[in-house]
């Protein structure tokens, strides 16, 4: 069967499901708030569009055909997806999803969650980890994103809510782990493990003649595993140390590396209603330390 010219409407699927659930055309009409004749016409139009018989009808009973059973199962999934889409698009203040790539807000994460729940009980807060350059914003996985490097200004707006120190991550038995702090020059002979897609550190932090070798990863757990084995060192925002403490890893401040700006980003043409409230609360938390 050629389905390219087939038009199936949601009202037809809702009608089919109602007939099966209610058991009769009369009861389906009552459930849908339409006439029995309208139910009959809608089902007939769906069967014509699909070119198959969906229901067996007698004077007392309505039952799906074999094909009808399969169509009804698909119809339920389609209608559930559409209902979810509508809830998502119209939720407004009901919930706020904040995406992050590796680490959320470090030591401020619990305080942010608690204070948000107290100040905005009408808006459920969800933190979502998405390891992409926009922390899930471009993918539609979140409404706001915590990012630590600038995004495309044509599509996104952002606000700097705070600053975080750069820390070096080394194996716990590495000689550098015995130091209270580290300088960039002390890492130039090491191999630096970086995530070019979402990370905040590249070899360009060092002068051209003393840049460390690099290896690449795309996952924070892999990053932690490789560093704890002593193969590489890492450099990251302070929040990572708060979110991923590990017995086999030591985090040490890098004294001569500039701090990392923490940004909250959103779609320029479609900001969430709670955007400003989130920016203000996070700015307060970072400012107060």
Automatic annotation (TrEMBL):
<comment type="similarity">
    <text>Belongs to the LysR transcriptional regulatory family.</text>
</comment>
<dbReference type="GO" id="GO:0003677">
    <property type="term" value="F:DNA binding"/>
</dbReference>
<dbReference type="InterPro" id="IPR036388">
    <property type="entry name" value="WH-like_DNA-bd_sf"/>
</dbReference>
<keyword id="KW-0238">DNA-binding</keyword>
<dbReference type="Pfam" id="PF00126">
    <property type="entry name" value="HTH_1"/>
</dbReference>
<keyword id="KW-0805">Transcription regulation</keyword>
<keyword id="KW-0804">Transcription</keyword>
<protein>
    <submittedName>
        <fullName>DNA-binding transcriptional LysR family regulator</fullName>
    </submittedName>
</protein>
<dbReference type="InterPro" id="IPR036390">
    <property type="entry name" value="WH_DNA-bd_sf"/>
</dbReference>
<dbReference type="InterPro" id="IPR000847">
    <property type="entry name" value="LysR_HTH_N"/>
</dbReference>
<feature type="domain" description="HTH lysR-type">
    <location>
        <begin position="8"/>
        <end position="65"/>
    </location>
</feature>
<dbReference type="InterPro" id="IPR005119">
    <property type="entry name" value="LysR_subst-bd"/>
</dbReference>
<dbReference type="Pfam" id="PF03466">
    <property type="entry name" value="LysR_substrate"/>
</dbReference>
